[in-house]
Design a protein that fits this description.
The chain has about 70 residues and is an all-alpha fold. The chain has three helices and no strands.
């Protein structure tokens, strides 16, 4: 990861620009995930977390102290 410490203002736009991914397979996969989560909510999130991360959280609530 590149770290920038107080870059010049003239470079801010370039630093904040993210490359676009136009891969149709990626777009299709992401759209299917969104449809699945909209239809099945937390159950879909748990299944996807297990598939992608190897974890299936029981609760998605974030405690106030975790925000700090």
């Amino acid at each position: 990861m590149q770290v920038y410490d107080n870059p010049p203002r003239s470079g801010w736009k370039a630093l904040c620009t993210r490359p676009a991914n136009e891969d149709p397979q990626v777009r299709e996969r992401v759209e299917s995930i969104i449809v699945r989560v909209r239809a099945n909510g937390d159950r879909a999130l748990r299944e996807l977390a297990a598939a992608f991360d190897g974890a299936a959280p029981a609760d998605f609530a974030v405690a106030p102290d975790e925000f700090r």
